[in-house]
Design brief:
18 helices; alpha/beta; binds uridine 5'-triphosphate; transferase; about 625 residues; six-stranded parallel β-sheet; EC 2.7.7.64; Spore Coat Polysaccharide Biosynthesis Protein SpsA, Chain A; about 25% strand; UDPGP_fam; UDP-sugar_pyrophosphorylase
Length: about 625
C-alpha cells in the first residue's frame, strides 16, 4: 500500500479510537493490517472476539494474494450486513442452537399439542363458491410473494425450477402460470368490485445467487408474460456462513482459503427481505391488506388461492396456512396448536417426525393416528401462507423479520463433538407465527390435495422409490395432477369426463385423465368455469383440450381427440357439436435418453401430436365453432 493510503487508514483508525494489535491472536492478520480499511479492521476485531481467529491462520505474507484478502473482507461485510443483528448475533445464536442440539433438547418441551381451529372446504359447494367470491373481491388488496431461491437438489434439474413446464400440452412454465394467474385475479377482482382497474397486484420473487440471473432472463425473454415489468420485484437472499464445529467456528471454503463457506439460509429469509426492502411499508401505505406466500412448483396453487383468501378475509385470520388432509404419519408437517403451562401458545407447523413423539409424550398413547374421517386431525401443511398486513408489519417491526432458526448438524459419532460436514443456521417462512402473541388469529384452510397441491420436488429415480400410495411429487405426477384437477372441475361443472387410465412413466404409476388445460383467465374460480360450460359436454379419456382465451364457452361439446382454441378477449366464441380426430398421444421416453430434452425426460413421456382441430380468433366479435 502506498504510504499516503497507509497514513489515511492509520489516521481514520485513530479518529475512531482504534489501536489494533492482533499479533497475539492472529499474527498473520496483524502483518496484513495495512491492506484493510478502518471498517474492515473493525470487522476483523469482531471476528477475533467471536473466536474466529482460525480464519487468518493460513493468510500469506503481505504482497501475496492481497486481492483475495480484500475479497475476504468484502464477503464478511456482506454476510454481516445481510443478517439481522450481524455476524455477532449469527454466531451467538449458532452457539446456543448447537449446544441445544448436542444436549438433544426438544424444542417443544413443555408444550401440549391440540388441533387448532380452521376452515375445511369442500370443492364446489355453496360455501366454497362464497369464499371464492370473497377472495376475488379481496385480491386487489393483495400482494403475492414467490419464494424461488432454492437449489432444487432433489429434483436435479439443470435449469431453474420455475422455468419447467407445469404441463406439456400447452408448455406453460410455472412462472408463466403464476404471473397469468395473478393477472387474471387482478382483472376478475376489478370486474367483480367495479373498482379501480388501474390497480396492479404487486408480485415479488425471492431469488438467490443460484436462481437470480436466470429468473430475470426468463422474465425478460418472455416480456414478463404480459405483466408490467414494474409490477414485478426481485429480492435476492444472501447465503449464510457455514459452521465447522460446536463453537460455531466458520468453515473455510474448500475451493478458496480466503472465503468462508456459505450455504442457503432457507425460505424464512423472505420476511426480513420484505421488511428491509421497504416494500411492506409501501404496500401498507397503498392500502393493501394481504400478503400471500407460495413456492416454486405447484401447478394447482391458484385453484385454491381465491377460496383461501376468502377464508382469511371472512374469518379475519392474521395468518392462514393452506393445508390438505393428511394421513397419520404421512411425511408432511401437521398444523398444530401448542400450548405451554406458562401461558405461551402458538399455531405452527410441526414436522411429521416431531409430531408423533410429541403426541406420545403428552398422553396420546397411539401417537399420530387417523380419526373417524380416516385422516389425522392435524391438517397437512403445504406451506402457502396468507398474512394480514397490519399485524404482519407490527410483528416485523419488533423482530425486523428475523425468524426462529434451527440447526441440523450431521454428527460424526455419538459423542456429538464433530460434524461429518459443515452445517449452518436455517429458517423457514412457516415458522413466522412462532413469535406471535397467543392472542394472534392463526388459522388454516383445508382443501383437497387434488385441487391444491402437486409440487415438483423429486427426480425420477427417487420418485419411483416412493412407497405405493404416497405422492410422487415429481414432474410426472405434477403434470398429471393438473389434468386430473381440470377434469374433476369440469365434472363438477356438469360435464361428462371419462375415467382415467393407469399408465407407468419413469417407473411411476399415474392416473392419466384427458389432457385438459386452460389459461387462468378462462376459469380461475369454479363459478367462472361453471359459467362457461353448459349443456351436455363430454370428454373421452384420449382427449386433449387447450383453451387460451377469456370468453370461450363450451356448449354441448363432445370431444374425442384434440381441440385447441385461442381467442383474444374481445372475441366471444361458442364451441358446440362433436369434435373427433386422431388426437395427441402420450409416448413413453426413457429418463436416461439424452437425445430427449431434459424437460420431457424428467416426466417420462412426450406428446405425439397426430391430429387436432385448431382455431384462433384474433378479431373482435361473436363466433361459433360448430364443426
Ligand atoms: P424446497 O423445500 O423445495 O427446497 O423449498 P429447495 O432448496 O428448492 O429444493 P431441495 O431441498 O434442494 O431439493 C421450498 C421453496 O422454498 C424456496 C424454494 O425455491 C421453494 O420454492 N427456497 C428454499 C428459497 O426460496 N430459499 C431457500 O433458501 C430455500
Amino acid at each position: 500500500m502506498a504510504s499516503s493510503a497507509l497514513d489515511s487508514t492509520t489516521e481514520s483508525l485513530s479518529k475512531l479510537g482504534f489501536h489494533p494489535d492482533f499479533s497475539a491472536s492472529a499474527p498473520n492478520l496483524q502483518k496484513n493490517l495495512r491492506l484493510l480499511s478502518a471498517e474492515q479492521i473493525e470487522l476483523a476485531r469482531m471476528l477475533l472476539e467471536m473466536g474466529q481467529s482460525h480464519l487468518f491462520e493460513h493468510w500469506a505474507e503481505p504482497g501475496v494474494d492481497d486481492e483475495e484478502k480484500k475479497g475476504f473482507f468484502e464477503q464478511v461485510a456482506r454476510l454481516n450486513s445481510s443478517y439481522p443483528g450481524g455476524l455477532e448475533s449469527y454466531i451467538k445464536t449458532a452457539r446456543e442452537l448447537l449446544a441445544d442440539s448436542k444436549a438433544g433438547k426438544n424444542p417443544f418441551d413443555g408444550f401440549t399439542p391440540s388441533v387448532p381451529k380452521g376452515e375445511v372446504l369442500t370443492f364446489g359447494d355453496n360455501n366454497f363458491i362464497n369464499f371464492e367470491e370473497a377472495g376475488v373481491r379481496e385480491a386487489q388488496k393483495a400482494a403475492f410473494v414467490l419464494v424461488a431461491g432454492g437449489l432444487g437438489e432433489r429434483l436435479g434439474y439443470n435449469g431453474i425450477k420455475v422455468a419447467l413446464p407445469a404441463e406439456t400440452t400447452t408448455g406453460t412454465c410455472f412462472l408463466q402460470y403464476y404471473l397469468e394467474s395473478i393477472l387474471a385475479l387482478q382483472e376478475d377482482s376489478c370486474r367483480l368490485t367495479q373498482g379501480d382497474c388501474q390497480a396492479q397486484i404487486p408480485f415479488v420473487i425471492m431469488t438467490s445467487d443460484d436462481t437470480h440471473a436466470r429468473t430475470i432472463q426468463l422474465l425478460e425473454s418472455n416480456s414478463y408474460f404480459g405483466m408490467e415489468p414494474t409490477q414485478v420485484k426481485l429480492l435476492k437472499q444472501e447465503k449464510v456462513a457455514c459452521l465447522a464445529d460446536n463453537d460455531a467456528r466458520f468453515a473455510i471454503d474448500p475451493n478458496n482459503k480466503y472465503r468462508i463457506q456459505t450455504k442457503p439460509h432457507g425460505h424464512g429469509d423472505v420476511h426480513s427481505l420484505l421488511f428491509s426492502s421497504g416494500l411492506l411499508k409501501a404496500w401498507h401505505a397503498a392500502g393493501l391488506r394481504w400478503v400471500l406466500f407460495f413456492q416454486d412448483t405447484n401447478g394447482l396453487l391458484f385453484k385454491a388461492i381465491p377460496a383461501a383468501l376468502g377464508v382469511s378475509a371472512t374469518r379475519q385470520y392474521h395468518v392462514n396456512s393452506l393445508a390438505v388432509p393428511r394421513k397419520a404419519k404421512e411425511a408432511i408437517g401437521g398444523i398444530t396448536k401448542l400450548t405451554h403451562a406458562d401461558g405461551r401458545a402458538m399455531v405452527i407447523n410441526v414436522e411429521y417426525n416431531q409430531l408423533d413423539p410429541l403426541l406420545r409424550a403428552t398422553g396420546h398413547d397411539g401417537g399420530d393416528l387417523n380419526d373417524e374421517t380416516g385422516y389425522s386431525p392435524f391438517p397437512g401443511n403445504i406451506n402457502q401462507l396468507i398474512l394480514e398486513i397490519d399485524p404482519y408489519i407490527e410483528e416485523l417491526t419488533k423482530t425486523r423479520g428475523s425468524i426462529k432458526e434451527f440447526v441440523n448438524p450431521k454428527y460424526k459419532d455419538a459423542s456429538k463433538s464433530s460434524f461429518k460436514s459443515s452445517t449452518r443456521l436455517e429458517c423457514m417462512m412457516q415458522d413466522y407465527p412462532k413469535t406471535l402473541p397467543a392472542s394472534a388469529r392463526v388459522g388454516f384452510t383445508v382443501m383437497d390435495a387434488w385441487l391444491a397441491y402437486a409440487p415438483v420436488k423429486n427426480n425420477p429415480e427417487d420418485a419411483a422409490k416412493v412407497p405405493k400410495g404416497n405422492p410422487y411429487h415429481s414432474a410426472t405426477s405434477g403434470e398429471m395432477a393438473i389434468y386430473r384437477a381440470n377434469s374433476l372441475i369440469l365434472r363438477k361443472a356438469g360435464a361428462q369426463v371419462s375415467d382415467p387410465v393407469l399408465q407407468v412413466f419413469n417407473g411411476q404409476e399415474v392416473e392419466v385423465w384427458p389432457r385438459i388445460a386452460w389459461k387462468p383467465k378462462w376459469g380461475l374460480t369454479f363459478a367462472e368455469v361453471k359459467r362457461k360450460v353448459s349443456g351436455s359436454c363430454a370428454f373421452s379419456q384420449r382427449s386433449t383440450m387447450a383453451i387460451k382465451g377469456r370468453n370461450i364457452f363450451l356448449e354441448d361439446l363432445s370431444l374425442d381427440g384434440a381441440l385447441l382454441i385461442e381467442a383474444i378477449d374481445d372475441a366471444e366464441v361458442k364451441v358446440r357439436g362433436s369434435v373427433q380426430n386422431k388426437g395427441w398421444i402420450l409416448q413413453n421416453v426413457d429418463h436416461k435418453d439424452a437425445s430427449v430434452p431434459e424437460e420431457l425426460r424428467i416426466r417420462g413421456f412426450k406428446i405425439n401430436k397426430i391430429e387436432q382441430l385448431e382455431k384462433n380468433y384474433s378479431e373482435p366479435g361473436k363466433f361459433c365453432l360448430n364443426p
